[in-house]
Known about the structure:
Blueprint: E1 6-11, H1 15-28, E2 31-33, H2 40-49, E3 53-58, H3 64-76, E4 80-86, H4 91-100, E5 104-107, H5 112-126, H6 132-135, E6 137-142, H7 150-165, E7 169-173, H8 181-184, H9 193-198, H10 205-211, E8 213-214, E9 220-223, H11 229-233, H12 237-248, E10 253-257, H13 264-272, E11 275-280, H14 284-299, E12 307-314, H15 322-329, E13 333-338, H16 341-350, H17 354-357, H18 362-387, H19 392-400
Parallel strand pairs: 1-2, 1-3, 3-4, 4-5, 6-10, 6-11, 7-9, 7-10, 11-12, 12-13
Antiparallel strand pairs: 8-9
Helix pairs in contact: 1-5, 3-4, 4-18, 7-18, 12-13, 18-19
Amino acid sequence: MSRESISTVILSSQNRLKKVLDLYMQEFGGFEVVEDFENSSDLYNTLSSLPKSFLIIDMQDENKVDLDLVSKISSDCPNCKILAITENPSVDFIVKVMRMGAKEVISSPVIKSEFFDVLKRVEEQLDSEYQKLNKCRMITVFSNKGGIGKTSIASNLALELAKTTKENVALVDLNFQLGDITTFLDLKPSFNISYMLKNLDKINKDFLLNTLEKYKNTSLYVLADPPYFKQADDISPKQIAKLFEILKDSFSYIVVDSDASFDGKTITSLDNSDLLFLVTCINLPALRNCQRCLDLFEKLGYSSDKVQVLVNRYMENDEITIEDAEKVLNKSIYWKIPNNYFAIMAAINKGVPVSEINPASNVAKSYKELAIHVSDSIHRQELIKKYSSSSFDNINNILRG
């Protein structure tokens, strides 16, 4: 692993804390403290210009100015990792500061071993040397019922993941007969999944990033469905598995818009996924189909954590309530995407994500919150469990709020 120094800024009014952290970093090695900033603009410009940097911010008062700074630097400086330090961090604080962009939170007084763990993770992230299991998260969006909004969910979620994390995200259209990802995003890709599968021995990270269709100026890359039905006939589940293996070495997130059938290709996608979003609406036929899918996934050996129910087109005044649905399914609803027909249809008809039509709409905000939740939920829940005495159920309720 590279030991090139990572420029580090410590923002704190406590000189003792700054000295302790500086000594710890000298002992750990690979981090160099940068000081003498005239103002916040000077700090911001410095962090923006550095190839990799680390910001440690003392947030004992948990004030809005600090949160705004975290949000701005996280948004505009993707090569800067942020650590927030506070005394006895609360659940609300952890959720708030991580939503603003801080990926690490520790309590003060700082324990050296915990701080070293943070430094190790930051170094690995900035050097792009993740362990394979931690590097990529694969999410498949599935429903065995057509017309339920699966493609819209996959495309909007993938884009928000790219915008939120600033990391490379692959959006794969696995609906080989009637794929619509390119229509939803108004793309005309030069390469499709059929070509990739025929050239698996030639594919590497550079090849993928140079040939997959990139969505505008984002880090979202689209792997389109085959343009002709016949091209799909020769694609095997084994090829699909190999493709996912290659993609996982090159992308931080993979979002798959799956076929509605339970053929070998779809099962391969479901097997390889870390998270499976089973999409339903709140009506009896959709819930009945959802229940059947849950039964099948249980027989396939998928864990309850892996399979999560996502409700699309949710309306608070539905005759069937969320509580009713959870009783029928015997499972908690993971996420609710609000019903907003006009915003979604305007986005589909113009071939753009809903956030480009109306970023202030309830549905656009829901997709953004879902992406934030998916991107850091594992690490965030570990932090919350560590610092909170709340029950696990209460924590989940807070995260979903």
